[in-house]
Amino acid sequence: MKTLTAALLATTGLVMAAPAFAQEVYNLDEITVSANLEETAKARSGATVTVVTEQDLQEAGDTRVADYLSRIPGVSMASSGPIGTTGSLYVRGTPSQYVAVLVDGIDVGDAAAGQGSFDFGGLTTADISRIEVLKGSNAALYGSQAVAGVINITTKRAKDIGTEQSVAAELGSYRTRKLSYSLATKTETGEVALTYSHMMTDGFSAADENDGNFEADGYRANRLSFYGEHSIAPGVTLGLTGFVEDSRGAFDESAYDSVKGSYVPVDGTTGDDYTIRDSNGLRAFADISAGGIDHKIELSRYQMNRDSCSNGWCDDFHSTRGKLRYQGATDLGANGRLVFGAETEREKAHGASTQLNSLFSELTYAITPQFDVTASARYDHHSDFGAFNSGRLAAVYRFSDDLLVRASAGNGFRAPSLYELYGPYGDTSLAPEESKTADLGIEKSFGDKGSISATAFWLEATNLIGWNRSSGSYGQISGKSRRSGLELAGSYALSQRIELGGNYTYTDSSVSTGWSAVERHNLSVYAKAQMSDDVSGMLSVQYVADRPDALREFAVANAMLTYAIDADKEAYLRVENLFDTEYQLNDSYGTSDRAFYVGVRASF
Description:
Elements: H1 2-17, E1 31-32, E2 40-41, E3 48-53, H2 54-60, H3 65-69, E4 75-79, E5 87-91, E6 99-103, E7 106-107, E8 128-135, H4 139-142, E9 149-155, E10 162-172, E11 176-186, E12 190-201, E13 219-233, E14 236-251, E15 254-257, E16 262-265, E17 273-290, E18 293-310, E19 313-332, E20 336-349, E21 352-368, E22 371-382, E23 386-400, E24 403-414, H5 418-422, E25 433-445, E26 450-468, E27 473-493, E28 498-508, E29 521-530, E30 535-545, E31 554-566, E32 569-576, E33 595-603
Parallel strand pairs: 6-9
Antiparallel strand pairs: 1-2, 3-8, 4-5, 6-7, 8-9, 10-11, 10-33, 11-12, 12-13, 13-14, 14-17, 15-16, 17-18, 18-19, 19-20, 20-21, 21-22, 22-23, 23-24, 24-25, 25-26, 26-27, 27-28, 28-29, 29-30, 30-31, 31-32, 32-33
C-alpha cells in the first residue's frame, strides 16, 4: 500500500505541474470490426468492446502487448518472466485458452500448445495500429475458443492518401535494443503496408532473482508483417495480408509442485533452457458487391514451429491451421441487415488432425432509431465431437447522444485441443467444454471531455478440462465453474492540458471449480499532461489485490516523457517499475526491476 500511495502522489504531482494538454475526443461513431460479423458503429453494438489505438500504445510506451492490455477493464496477465517467456491473458477472470486471438483476420492460436492458446509472451507493439478486445461468449461469431472473448489485432496501415514512412529505435536496461521500420502507401483504389521490427535483450532471470537466480534469460525476435488490397473493378477488391516471425527466448526449468498444484521454476538451474519459434500466417481475401449482396471470400493459413529445450531434453511442436470462409450480407429494407456464411477449418498437430465445418448467420435490426438488436447463430460440426449450436443476442438502447445501455447474452464451447486429445498426456475420451455468458452495461459521455462506464458480467462453464493429478494427464472436471464481476472505467479532460482516467475490475471466482483463480481487485489509473509546447508526459499506476496462490498485492508505476523535436519527430524516456517494486505476476517467476529506456520515433 505504501507503493500505491507514493505512486498516486506522483501522479498528482505530474498533473499539478502540467501547463497544456491536447484533449482526447470521445466519439460515439467509432467503428469496431469485432463486435458483429460486419463493421459496426460502437454506439450501435450491444457487445462490450475496448478499443486500443496506435496513439494509445505510443503514449504508454509498452514493449509487450500484454503489458498494455493487462491495464484495461476485465483483463489481467500471468507471465513466467521477461519478454519471450510464456505470457497468458485472462479476460474476465477466464484463462487464455478461452480467448480467440486474431491478427489481421488470421487465427493465431497454437494448435500444438497444451490447450491451444496464443502465447502473448513475445508479441510486441511494434507493428500494431489497433487492438479490439471483445468480451463475453462470442462462439456464434468466432466458433470454438471464443468463450470469454476475442482479441482482434490490426497491423499498421496508411492513414491518408499518399506514402508514409516511419522509423523507431530504442535502447535501455538489460541491454535492450529495438528497431522498427514501416512503409505504407494508399491510393484511391488500394493500399500497401509493410512493417519490419527487430528486438534483442539480455533480459532478467525468469525464476525470481530474490530466490537466488541471477542468470539472465534473453530474447531476440524478428518480425515482418504486410497488408495489401486493390480494387480491380467497381465493387471488386482483392487483398493479401500476412506475417513472418522468428524468435529465440531463454527460460528457467520448472517442476511440478504437488503442494501448490502447479509448475514452478527450479531455483539455481544452469540457465541453458530455450525455445525457438518460427511462425507465419497468410490470408487472401476477395470482397465482391453484386446483385444486392456483399460477398467476402477468405482463405487463410497459420503455421507454428516451436522447438523447446530444457534440462538437456528437446521437444519439437509443429502445427498448422487452414481455413476457408465465405460470408454474404444484404439489406432487409431500411432497418435490417442479414449476414450469412459458411467456413471450414482444419488443424494439424501431434500427428493428428481435426476438421470443423460451420454455418453462421446474423440479423441486425433497428427496432427504433434509438434501439438496435443483433441476433447471431452458428452451427458447428466437429470431426471428433459432432454438432454444437451456439447463439448470441445483443442489444443497445441510446437514451440520448451521450447515454446508452448495452446488454448481451450467449453460449459457447471449446473443443479439446489436439494436445489434450493426442499429446503424451492426452485423453481421447474428453468432451467439449460448454459455457454461458451475460453482461449489462451503461455508458455516459461528456462531450469531447471524456466518459464513464459500468458493466456487470457473468459466466458459467461445465465439462471443464483440467489436469488430473492422480492420472498425470488431462481430464474432465465435474461440476460448474462461475465468474462474475464488475468493470468500471472513465476518463476526463480537466482542461486542455490535463487528462485523468482509469478503470477498476472486480472479479468473483470464489465458487469456481477447475479454473485457476485470478485477483479479486484490479485497479489502473493514469494521468496525461502537456507540460510545454514540446514536452508531454504520462504516468500510470496499477494496483492488484486479493490474489490467488498466496501472491502478495502490489502496485507498480510506469512513466513516459516525450519531447517533440518537430511535427514528425520525437524522443522519449520511459521508466518501467518507477518505484522498483518487488512483485510477481506468476508464482515464483521474476519481474523487471526499475528499468530505463530511451528512444526516437520519426515519420516522413
